[in-house]
Amino acid sequence: MKPCSIHSWARLSSCREQPIFTTRAHVFQIDPSTKKNWVPASKQAVTVSYFYDVTRNSYRIISVDGAKVIINSTITPNMTFTKTSQKFGQWADSRANTVFGLGFSSEQQLTKFAEKFQEVKEAARLARDKSQEKIETSSNHSQASSVNGTDDEKASCAGPADTHLKSENDKLKIALTQSAANVKKWEIELQTLRESNARLTSALQESAASVEQWKRQFSLCRDENDRLRNKIDELEEQCSEINREKEKNTQLKRRIEELESELREKETELTDLRKQSEIIPQLMSECEYVSEKLEAAERDNQNLEDKVRSLKTDIEESKYRQRHLKVELKSFLEVLDGKIDDLHDFRRGLSKLGADN
């Protein structure tokens, strides 16, 4: 069954109908091609209502989703509502050539809907039987009138027959009066139902406008969501870059600490060398003292020729010590110069590394 448009629903609502039970459920229809699978007829839970048609004395199940009527099923006594699970039920509509399914949010709602279906089905059966009785009564009355007319022709002068005819005419007049009163009552009910249907139509139009507004708001929210997701991706990328920079900074700090430790070691070595260099003036002073003593010895050589032989050994030893001290001093100065050059190179490398950072 194809869903009706909102205009068709408005024409349907113009009939003399009134809702007698309303609930909410997800609507499904059987797949016309496979006759097995369920096809959703609504995107979310919608209102499903029982309507009573005063004019036709019939009952219908009607459901509207936005601007479409997705259920318009007239209930007949032959229909059966079947519970297939704790929250799902179905019934077949031969006129619509489809099977409707309803999914409820709770078992209590399904039970109430099934009970109302059975109640409405019984009311439809009683209405059908009553309608058949009226048809049979009307047929019998027509036959009786025809027979009475034939009897009147045969006994036109009979007094009792005239009395009976008058009595029947009076009954018909009373029935006609009651029928006119019922017509007025039905017209009042019809006007009331028309006003109610007009309000329903206006409400449906407002609902359709609200749906359009919700769709626009949903579109705006979806665009805003996409924008926020893109912003989050950008922030995550920036956080990754910041983490990489932090790792680099950590490595640089570790390297600086290592270099500072090496610098402290070099400074300790330099301090030791400086302490050793403080001994050099003393050695030089001793060397000068020895030289002066040697010179004095040479000046006294002439006067102390007798002492020369005894002092030669001392002089040779003194010269040997002087040469040895000079060699050690030279070696020490070379080592000191190398250490000072290494320290200057190290300071320049450290200064360059600090400038790069």
Task: Describe the 3D structure.
With 357 residues, this protein is an alpha+beta fold. The protein starts with a strand and ends with a helix. The protein has a domain at 19-129: PH-domain like (Roll), CATH 2.30.29.30. Helices cover 69% and strands 16% of the residues. The radius of gyration is 60 Å and the shape is rod-shaped. GO terms for molecular function: G protein-coupled glutamate receptor binding. This is Homer protein homolog 2.
- Radius of gyration over alpha carbons? 60 Å
* Name of the level-1 CATH class of the domain at 19-129: Mainly Beta
Rounded average pLDDT: 80
Strand content: 15-25%
How far apart, in Å, are the first and last alpha carbons? 77 Å
CATH architecture of the domain at 19-129: Roll
Per DSSP, the total helix count is 5
CATH topology of the domain at 19-129: PH-domain like
The number of distinct β-strands equals 9
Query: What is the CATH superfamily of the domain at 19-129?
Result: Pleckstrin-homology domain (PH domain)/Phosphotyrosine-binding domain (PTB)
Assign the structural class, choosing from mainly alpha, mainly beta, alpha/beta, alpha+beta, or little secondary structure.
alpha+beta
**Helix percent band:** 55-70%
Largest sheet: 9 strands, antiparallel
Spans of at least 5 consecutive residues with low confidence: 1-15, 149-158
The ordered string of helix (H) and strand (E) elements is EHEEEEEEEEHHHH
